[in-house]
Amino acid sequence: xxxxxxxxxxxxxxxxxxxxxxxxxxxxxxxxxxxxxxxxxxxxxxxxxxxxxxxxxxxxxxxxxxxxxxxxxxxxxxxxxxxxxxxxxxxxxxxxxxxxxxxxxxxxxxxxxxxxxxxxxxxxxxxxxxxxxxxxxxxxxxxxxxxxxxxxxxxxxxxxxxxxxxxxxxxxxxxxxxxxxxxxxxxxxxxxxxxxxxxxxxxxxxxxxxxxxxxxxxxxxxxxxx
Length: 226
Description:
Elements: E1 8-18, E2 21-27, E3 41-44, E4 47-55, E5 58-63, H1 65-70, E6 81-86, E7 105-115, E8 118-124, E9 138-141, E10 144-152, E11 155-160, H2 162-167, E12 178-183, H3 185-195, H4 213-218
């Protein structure tokens, strides 16, 4: 588990195919590796990966083909900058929100406007994730925990304060940039909880046939319009 508070920036040294498996190698002079052991988890741009090798200020992690398809990691090149966060420990302050490092999908930056020292960014999420994004709720973008300012359909805005600009790679994003998104895990569990016994019905894992307005009305969670 993670908090979405970025600990350090890293740089991609290589992303290459080894023995039919992809291996990502990252260097980070700013990250404290003193408590990092083989098998530990580190989030790279919000994607939870397992440390398979570690030497000095560098570490390697294996990346499955599915992870490359579902996240932006496959777009990384040697020299790319990335956000890094080590896994949460019981004594660490939960400064952001609960983040699993399991990316739900990719979003796209639609607009970026300066507002004083901050940057107001507007993103579009895949339609199937839109229902999990709520005004003043939390969302994780490339591993960074952010508060949603406004929501309009499948689009939402976030405010990137100067500190976040300085400590992450978000200030480098340009219109059309693809990002890794993780919605609030509580929203996902709440959806399944509301389904109750119906969650065991085949097809309820399909976002198109899960929690609907009709289902809520049928089970007394929403009244009819008058």
